[in-house]
Write a structure and sequence with these properties.
By secondary structure, this protein is α/β, with parallel strands linked by helices. It has helices spanning about 1-20, 80-90, 105-115, 125-145, 155-175, 215-220, and strands at about 35-40, 60-65, 70, 75-80, 95-100, 185-190, 200-205. It is globular.
């Protein structure tokens, strides 16, 4: 532990050298333009994937499965982590960021199809992980049922990554707590060559609930080259 911590602190010195002069305008408040909801996967470099080096520009939320929802006694609602910058900091855009090969989606797919989800092969998980899988299962159950016949596990998971992004976008669009003037977009971060692009590319799969690739490319020609989907169900 001490070796790892020492290494982190050494790398922080590099960070300090680069960023110590960049916090002047955000000392007392923040007004991020964009909220990103990413999967808390170590391979998803939340600020780096956008090339962001500006403190105060992105409000980054992360959890396994890039969920925008949480459960309460009153039901499932949009998470306060996501709502806070929209309600209190004036953020204009929410981007839900799924990624290829998502472990949370894989675990949920295995759970829904009777496969093993536990690391020991028994299917058992600690309650905290089961809670997250159960939350995703509510959204992915219909997607699993709609998968094409004969699709293999890897292809199924990557299709469900898109499906999950769509359902999280829907949750934001349907919520009365999300201000009406906030734009909502869903994307997939690909570091596995699934979309036949370059590793690290972001592919737009959903804009304000629209998922038709041709319609999205026509409506957003400035990013048409980045609009793509594996599954138009």
């Amino acid at each position: 532990m001490s070796r790892l911590l020492a290494e982190l602190l050494r790398r922080n010195e590099t960070h300090v050298e680069r960023f110590q002069s960049r916090f002047g305008e955000v000392q007392d408040s923040q007004h991020p333009e964009v909220v990103t909801v990413c999967c808390a996967d170590s391979r998803v470099l939340q600020d780096h994937l956008w090339g962001n080096e500006e403190p105060g520009r992105l409000f980054t939320c992360s959890n396994i499965g890039n969920r925008v929802v949480q459960r309460t006694r009153g039901g499932t609602i949009v998470s306060g982590d996501v709502l806070y910058p929209l309600v209190h900091a004036g953020s204009e855009l929410v981007v839900v960021v799924g990624h290829t090969g998502c472990g949370a989606v894989t675990a949920t797919y295995d759970h829904l199809t009777g496969g093993s989800t536990g690391s020991d092969g028994t299917g058992d998980e600690p309650p905290g992980i089961e809670h997250c899988v159960d939350l995703l299962a509510d959204y992915l159950d219909a997607g699993v049922a709609a998968l094409p016949d004969g699709v293999d596990r890897e292809s199924a998971v990557n299709r469900l990554v898109e499906y999950n992004v769509d359902r999280q976008v829907d949750s934001l669009l349907d919520s009365e707590d999300v201000p009406e003037d906030v734009d909502v977009v869903g994307v997939v971060y690909d570091f596995q060559d699934v979309y036949d692009g370059r590793r690290g590319e972001i592919h737009v799969v959903n804009v304000a609930g629209e998922t038709d690739v041709a319609a999205l490319r026509a409506a957003h020609p400035e990013v048409a080259g980045r609009v793509d989907r594996l599954w138009e169900y």
